[in-house]
């Protein structure tokens, strides 16, 4: 094998990875926000979530890309852990489409007849329909063609490589050999950052006789375990939501891999029987069958243990307390997709609002000493996190609707800062003065207005009615204080302090209403 053959093999690998990247990026860009709405509509049950994961991955041709997107959706509060996990389980099955495409099409047809027209058509569409969904679809179509060219180039390179390899030494023998093949699959997937691309390489190599059947099957198991590396890298420094989903992904693939290793021989026997035997001509189809059985096995295992698994990972990664200054939803996995980043920032702003509502209710219950200085600092830190985050969001490419939503985030941030100043003013006031600023009726109105139990279900009209009642009570109380000052029954300085505090209570209600209605 000459240097030219090695260079061609390297080029074939590069074309394969480039094609996978173009296909994934093109389809993901074409889907845009539709992917989010699709997942929100189709993840209400285990079966529907798994089918959604299968469908999206079969189209996008990258489970890693789907899992990273799901980390973002989960972080932003768009999907619950159970929903996202079952999409991941279905996504694993969706990767089998790559194996079938390679086994049944990519290794058996005249590549030139399919690939070159796809590349030409795709790039022509991209040039003619710039800055449109059609342009992204054109990129995906061209990527599909480049992928096939890469497969064909790799196949030719492996054909030159086989005579130089001691193929007999690549036979799997014993536990050590199996584990070594699994490790090879893990490393291959970690390097190319795509289990689909790794499977395409393995199937292409096996079709030219590089791998024995069991060696190929063991590498397939390793490739499935290796796909968790992308999720683990994306979860580094992420929130507890992302770490939970990444942990579920790792446990699912590792457990399925362990069971598949125990059943390696019978699983391969079934795969070989379904694909026509152990001949080199049939091994790629056999590995595609094996890969499908492997992932269906994982789906069955998760159906048995999913609730226990979810409970366990939730105990491993605790969410920050509601009064904590650490973000629950903001991290790098959602920053690159503005729709997810905006949703995550909205969730964090609601956390801050709930913290301030709890403080206001504490003051209304004559328990101002219960509000610690540490809690005030924590909320201030969270506000700083949010402000830095929405500033970074403004640097992204935003649609018109996203730009409007970002402007609303900035407005709400200003309201939260104002609310923080009011809370600090209440904390600085003496308990006796704070109590005097509220009569029984007004205190009851404010407590009912700040009742968190029904906030989410109130209409805008109900919020407005509550504010108007508070405003009327404040005006009546203010008039009473002014009359007492005129009759020398109340010192002017104290009266002014009471009027100012009453105005602050009214302003607090107006801010809470604006933040709830505008969120």
From TrEMBL:
Superkingdom of this protein's organism: Bacteria
Leader sequence residues: none
Positions of transmembrane segments: 53-73, 111-128, 135-154, 174-192, 221-240, 247-269, 281-302
Keyword check for Transmembrane: yes
Membrane disposition: Multi-pass membrane protein
InterPro entries tied to this protein: Na/Pi_transpt
PANTHER family for the chain: SODIUM-DEPENDENT PHOSPHATE TRANSPORT PROTEIN 2B (PTHR10010:SF46), SOLUTE CARRIER FAMILY 34 SODIUM PHOSPHATE , MEMBER 2-RELATED (PTHR10010)
NCBIfam families on file: Na_Pi_symport
Protein name listed in UniProt: Na/Pi symporter
């Amino acid at each position: 094998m000459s240097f030219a053959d090695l260079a061609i093999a390297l080029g074939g690998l590069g074309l394969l990875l480039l094609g996978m990247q173009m296909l994934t990026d093109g389809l993901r860009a074409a889907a845009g926000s539709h992917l989010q709405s699709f997942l929100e509509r189709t993840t209400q049950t285990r079966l529907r979530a798994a089918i959604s994961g299968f469908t999206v991955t079969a189209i996008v041709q990258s489970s890693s890309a789907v899992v990273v997107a799901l980390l973002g959706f989960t972080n932003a509060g768009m999907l619950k852990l159970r929903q996202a996990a079952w999409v991941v389980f279905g996504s694993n099955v969706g990767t089998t489409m790559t194996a079938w495409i390679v086994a049944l099409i990519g290794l058996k047809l005249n590549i030139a007849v399919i690939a070159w027209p796809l590349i030409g058509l795709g790039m022509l569409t991209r040039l003619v329909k710039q800055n449109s969904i059609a342009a992204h679809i054109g990129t995906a179509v061209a990527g599909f063609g480049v992928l096939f060219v890469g497969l064909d180039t790799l196949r030719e390179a492996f054909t030159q490589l086989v005579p130089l390899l001691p193929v007999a030494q690549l036979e799997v023998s014993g536990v050590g050999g199996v584990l070594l093949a699994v490790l090879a699959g893990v490393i291959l997937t970690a390097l190319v950052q795509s289990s689909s691309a790794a499977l395409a390489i393995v199937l292409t190599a096996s079709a030219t006789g590089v791998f024995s059947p069991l060696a190929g099957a063991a590498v397939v198991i390793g490739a499935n375990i290796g796909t968790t590396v992308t999720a683990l890298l994306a979860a580094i420094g992420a929130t507890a939501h992302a770490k939970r989903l990444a942990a579920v992904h790792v446990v699912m693939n590792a457990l399925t891999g362990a069971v598949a290793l125990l059943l390696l021989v019978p699983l391969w026997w079934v795969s070989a029987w379904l694909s026509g035997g152990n001949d080199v001509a049939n091994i790629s189809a056999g590995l595609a069958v094996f890969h499908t059985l492997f992932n269906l096995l994982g789906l069955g295992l998760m159906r048995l243990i999913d609730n226990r698994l979810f409970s366990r990972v939730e105990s491993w990664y605790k969410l920050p307390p509601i009064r904590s200054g650490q973000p629950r939803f903001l991290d790098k996995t959602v920053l690159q997709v503005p729709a997810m980043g905006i949703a995550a920032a909205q969730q964090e702003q609601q956390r801050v609002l709930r913290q301030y509502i709890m403080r206001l209710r504490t003051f209304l219950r004559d328990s101002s000493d219960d509000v610690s200085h540490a809690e005030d600092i924590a909320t201030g830190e969270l506000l700083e996190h949010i402000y830095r985050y929405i500033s970074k969001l403004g640097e992204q490419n935003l649609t018109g609707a996203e730009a409007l939503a970002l402007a609303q985030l900035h407005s709400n941030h200003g309201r939260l800062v104002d609310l923080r100043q009011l809370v600090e003013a209440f904390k600085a006031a003496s308990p006796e003065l704070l109590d005097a600023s509220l009569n029984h009726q007004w205190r009851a109105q404010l407590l009912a207005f700040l009742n968190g139990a029904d906030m989410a279900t109130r209409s805008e009209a109900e919020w407005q009615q509550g504010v108007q009642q508070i405003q009327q009570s404040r005006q009546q109380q203010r008039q009473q204080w002014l009359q007492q000052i005129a009759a020398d029954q109340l010192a002017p300085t104290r009266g002014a302090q009471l009027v100012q505090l009453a105005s602050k209570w009214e302003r607090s209600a107006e801010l809470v209403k604006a933040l709830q209605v505008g969120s």
